[in-house]
Design goal:
- Pfam families: Gelsolin, Sec23_trunk, zf-Sec23_Sec24.
- Keywords: Cytoplasm, Cytoplasmic vesicle, Golgi apparatus.
- The chain is an alpha+beta fold.
- The protein is about 25% helix and about 15% strand.
- Strands 11, 12, 13, 14, 15, 16 and 17 form a 7-stranded mixed beta sheet that branches. Strands 19-22-23-24 form a 4-stranded mixed beta sheet, with no helix packed on it. It has a 3-stranded antiparallel beta sheet with strand order 7-8-9, with no helix packed on it.
- The radius of gyration is 29 Å and the shape is globular.
- It binds zinc ion.
- The site of zinc ion (ZN) has 8 residues, from loops.
Amino acid sequence: MSHTGTHGMYMAEGGGSTGMSMAGPPPLGHMTAPPPNKYPHSGPTGLTGSTLQPQPEPQPPPPQQVLPNIQPVNVQEVRNILPATPITVSTPLLPQHLRDLNPDPSVFCSTMSTVPATSGLLNKMKLPFAIHIHPFKDSKARECPVINPSTIVRCRVCRAYINPFVSFVDQKHWRCNFCFRNNIVPDNYDYNPQSGKSGDHSFHQELRHSSVEYIAPSEYMVRPPQPSVYFFVIDVTYPTIQSGLLDVFCATLLDCINKLPGDSRTMVGFLSFDHTLHFYNLKPSQAQPQMLVVSDLEDPFIPSPTSLLVNLRESKELVKSFLQDFPRMFVDQRNLQSALGPALAITEKLLHQIGGRITVLMSSLPNVGPGALKVKEATGATKMDQLNMSASTDFYKKLALDCSAQQIAVDLFVFSSKSQSIDLMTVSTVAKFSSGQALVNTVIDATKAYRSNVASTMQGAGAKLTLPVSLRLLPLFILSLLKNIAFTLSNRQNTDCRSATISTILTLPLDWLISFFYPKLYALHTLSDKDTVDSDGEELLAPPILQLSAEKLTRYGVFLMDYGTGIYIWVSKEAPADVINNIFGVPHFGAIPESMTSLPLLENNLNRLTNSLICQLRLSRQHFMPLLVIREDGPHRLLFINYLIDDKTEDGTSYYEFLSHISRQLTK
Ligand SMILES: [Zn+2]
């Protein structure tokens, strides 16, 4: 699997255009902006590579450069719609010198590889035309220049930063490649202090690289750089204590207290809460931590303004002894009342001068003081209300806006039991999601638009459910969205899990998100050295990706599933003893331990390849991917089975039933 292959596994194959879709600079003096909502550079089929800059004379690309992406595919007839080999992200149709300047597609890529030539067709398709940006995604592979210019040059109209794709109209003017307006070149911009020469601005890093990092001058700052501030807000109600969460939190923080990012100015503070607020004086002059309790939740005050947020280096021993003793302070806790709202509000007051990061650990529904919530299931809310996932108070949203304005970030670590809702949707104030029907309509609309505008002229395109090659995976992915906990109408799902999933979806990088919705399934028992591809001189494993269907799970197989945030290994009951021995280092199926979470390193090829694949997947993600080995007869089997999206499940139809459904909608 190549780097770009991982990223664009299911994106359209070459021929279209992704990345920063800007054509080369037009000739000097050409200053006409394009008419609004028109996409120039129209090809004979009405679909072209994306080219947004005005062209003096539109030149349709040769048909063979465009057509592969829009060739018809009757998706109902294809048994294995997933591509056999990884698909690399297509590269924009640019002259070579601009191609080199273009950012890596993993940093900057268009949602469409083939862009409709008119805004009317784009509207009919109902597919979002957007740019996906992942800053620094390529920082390992490419060096990002850090620059500290005296003036940061930006477009006066749209505020775009000057970049390699702007054009210089004359010595005094440059034209923005986003809004096509002319801007004045700053005085002395062509003076190179290193060579002492004038007349050529091409030495500027921002004109040579599409990704640069600016050292922000003071006018870009709300205030001078502040120390790193970590403030921990901890729910100490009964569930937190009883579950052992508080012990785990303290042990973990003790473990990494020396690794908190920051310099010698780094500051820390702690606040715990049940029905009251507990502050901790950790000044280095203290012999031991001092607890200060505030019980006024309506208008809480800060009991000791200068001693609650302390310099970590100066107070480290006190902080360590606090973390060692903290869990024991609440061993007899039976309180179920949680004043999360007041705890967060007072923390915001404490940090508002300096900013920082608030880390919240919680297990209970906030139920006292401002921001108190009621258990949704108990308030008579209908199932539909619960599915709509609306926040029941704007307390947390207002607080979030206040925090944001003060440069305060809040991380929630939420641990709720299945039986106890904590109304995460309100606490996390995530906007409500629309229902799944909109997703189904998107397939239908895309198919109709394709049929009426493009396919009518092509042989074989008249079949009922025909999509262009580039969209052939759309129905499969829509189905995977519909079956995901974020969108499913099934009421088996806990609303807190749903909210957590929605929050996850809104923040995951694209490559990760694709696996999150439609996991990648690989057979391990057939893994061999032949399953490698060369990616920029590096050998990577790229075994065939299997459809997520029980029919792919042979009775004697061992399979690896990458579900975005983690990895499952599925072991079938009849997997041969030598395969099991090679991978897991145990003699037979029955000897594989329950809840095995790592593989041994053994002296055989299958074990080496399996560990390499796991390592490769983990390196491709920003967060650690946990591993779980699942035996076919084990208690965790449903975790794996529920991901067999192609099959009929409790949460929805099979893939082929879904295609029939779309097909029927088309004839209505
Ligand atoms: Zn502009």
